[in-house]
Amino acid sequence: MTPRDAEGNPADSSRWSDLDRPPLNAVALRRGLVREGGLWTGVDIVPRTGSTNSDLVALAAAGKADEGTVLVAEEQTSGRGRLDRRWTAPPRSGLFFSVLLRPAEVPVARWGWLPLLTGVAVATGLSRSAGVDTALKWPNDLLVTVGGEERKAGGILAERAGADGVVVGVGINVTLRAGELPVPQAGSLLLAGAVSTDRDPLLRGVLRSLEEWYGRWRGAGGDPMASGLQEAYAAGCATLGRTVRAELPGDRSVVGEAVAVDGDGRLVLATEQGVREPVGAGDIVHLRPA
């Protein structure tokens, strides 16, 4: 293992070498993930693309992707987060992938749980494979602790793919050093003290966790309570118990304590006026620790 300083920088080098960030092994990933009767039907890795979400939505529209298709990029040049925010990172420094899901047994009204389900699955998978404590910021950010501060190390974006499908994209910063962070509020698994930053087992762990949670949720007809998803999300959500500001569409904002995630996956705020307001879409700013 390469010696590193306190900020995660290689002690003997000012920049990453190819050995520090090896490419993913497509053959090994397929061997470990694709099996008869399982969710994952294919794993494809491309060296560079604009957005794995856009690519997979297009493949689904053309009838060239089955449910369980996984598309991974070593580098994304036009990665997107919520509210059309850009997601950029050096090549092979993270996990950037999208999956195609077709939850036919689940009413469309419950498909809004898929980003939250993915958050639970990612946090669970990384806890097992990277040994990093993670938390979820509603609705779709993955938080880690770096130097006693909460930092965003990942995000999730779900998009419809035709009438019967959803593409869920995930971006996770794995080996970004302090000097490579796009904004000061960002973090990475490396900076959070991960016991492993080997991307192959990390990706396998996340996808196996996603398969497990998706199967449980789908088997319950998308019921977040019966599947245990609502309880698991609340247990790992760093937003609950905090005073937050919800910046809503139409230039409206609401300040209140985040007290629950309801059955529709909305964040419920208790305002000073004694009103409980559910928020289904918007940007959440943590104003005070829990």
UniProtKB/TrEMBL annotation:
Q: What is this protein called?
A: biotin--[biotin carboxyl-carrier protein] ligase
Q: Does the keyword Transmembrane helix apply?
A: no
Q: Which UniProt keywords apply?
A: Biotin, Ligase
Q: What is its EC number?
A: 6.3.4.15
GO molecular function terms listed in the Swiss-Prot or TrEMBL record:
biotin--[biotin carboxyl-carrier protein] ligase activity
Pinpoint the BPL/LPL catalytic domain residues.
Answer: 33-218
Matching entries from NCBIfam families are given as: birA_ligase
Q: Which residues form a coiled coil?
A: none
Presence of keyword Cytoplasm: no
The lineage's top-level taxon is Bacteria
Species annotation? Streptomyces phaeoluteigriseus
Q: What is the lineage of its organism?
A: Bacteria, Bacillati, Actinomycetota, Actinomycetes, Kitasatosporales
Q: Cross-referenced Pfam families, in alphabetical order?
A: BPL_C, BPL_LplA_LipB
